[in-house]
Amino acid sequence: MLTRRRLLEGSIAGLLASASGGCNDMGSGRRVVVVGAGLSGLNAALILERWGFEVDVVEAKTRVGGRLWTLDHLPGSPEGGGNVMGAQYGRVVHMAHHLNIALRTPPRTLPSDYVIRDQRISRDSWASAAANPLPETWRSIPPQRLMGKLNETNPLLKTRAWHDPNLMASDQSADVGLKALGFPNAAIELINANNSYGNNLSDTSLMALYRIMGEFGRLSGPELAVQEATLGNMRLPEAMAKQLSRPVSLGEPVVAVRHSPSRVQVALASGKTLEADAAILALPLPALEPIEVNLSATQTNLLRQIDYHKVVQLHCVVEAPFWEAAGWSGSWWTDGLLGRIFTRPIPNTSRYNMTVWINGDHCDPLNALDETACTQSITQALWQLVPEARDVTSVGQLVRWSIDPYAGGVWALWRPGQAGTAHRAIRAPTGRLFFAGEHTAEAYRGMEGAMESGERAALEIMRVLA
Amino acid sequence: MRLRTLAVYLSAVQFGLLSASLPAAPLNSEQLYDVACSACHSLGTVSDHRVGPPLGGLLNRQAGELDGYQFSEALRTSGWIWRLPTLLAWLTDPDAAIPNNAMNYVNPLTAEETQQLSEWLLRQP
Fold it and tell me: Which of A41, A242, A392, B117 is disulfide-compatible with A282, CB 3.0–4.6 A?
């Protein structure tokens, strides 16, 4: 007879059997699976291994590094992903030093001329050019420096408390906020044309822009020059991965993460299942969203709401400085399809890397095209702007982060109203699940933010699985 | 446990909705230093490649006085001397302690961990 007690015992036994997946030996009680082999996941894994944890790192891509991606197949090995190491990036610099990754001051990007409504403007004539759309008192400010005007009112130059409730009046649409601060419409339109820190100004929190400009404002100065890895920034995560006692499992997308109060199961698309005492989800939110995992209701909602920045890049190699004969500088800032064109010399050669760099919602029509059509669309506009480039320029690599399923964009953006609470909620540990990645970092963004977040996630696990 | 209560519990477990009440185990001071400081500060008194100054011999050291570091003017002119109360205040909230400082750091430690780490750091030669 099936008594109530039998029924309960059966339920519990069944539950435990299904949770264990047939594996009864959990070993040390200090086994951790890290999902994502970018800087954040690798840093967390290295710290945990240092303190005796057994760590398995799984990575969906066939390489480590996440949003660091050195295009090694192109002359000059340009960076398709994270490219700049700030002078204050202590964790990144220390790791590079520790692993013998040489750093250098990047070759200087050539200065930029302007193209406004198809009118070419030399950088020296910006202030007086008829095509300069800015009102009189703003005309001398080049387009790429307009956002810097935010630092005249930036509360985050004196504090880094970007969640401070007293500052949340600035957690509003940047579009509205800039107008209220006296930015003329023409300046707002120029900022929106090439904004690296928002897909469009109305969906971006002014506080998020203050956070970024505050970081730049505090770190400006010739003595605080940026660095890059001499042989490519990817060398850093590659070297970090080599330090791990177990190799990173590459090409292993995760399909589900199941967790109970006592264990975690990470199910891979290959059919394998990893058992652990805890897991760190060190992957960008668009890559986390399709994974079956029970998060808090708040986190589930935020997964859908937090936006990621769109970037399209076309990396080209230039054999000769075609701009010199016409008296141009070599780089361009445009308000059209091409966005910005950054050109820099390839050291010890006579060639140049030239990258067309398109930001934000301007990427949408390009992302709707297939790779060939997208490349053609960009090159057509490029040859139209600089016909003289055509004979000396070869197209190397199209990079589209938004349509990469394991990235979904280049970094998390904070919408109006998200600066106060969303950032903390999205990284709050849920049972035995912990979170890392630049979107969870507090003090820094970018590579240093990723490293910082790995420390915090490792610490959270060390506290509960010591 | 009543059947309905247990059913709710099991459902919650199965769907991972229970916040695991994992036991908190105190970390030792070396672990706290390793995770929270070591990427930017070595121990001992010899400067190295790290962006921040070494933390050995910190007790009674004047803030911002070591050669070879780009200390903020705020720190250099603070008049602070590193002892337990100052170090605790600094690590708990650097911006509140000395506004306009150059240490871009948000402390991930609990108050107890910060106290333990501060006491340990001030004992390092």
Answer: A41
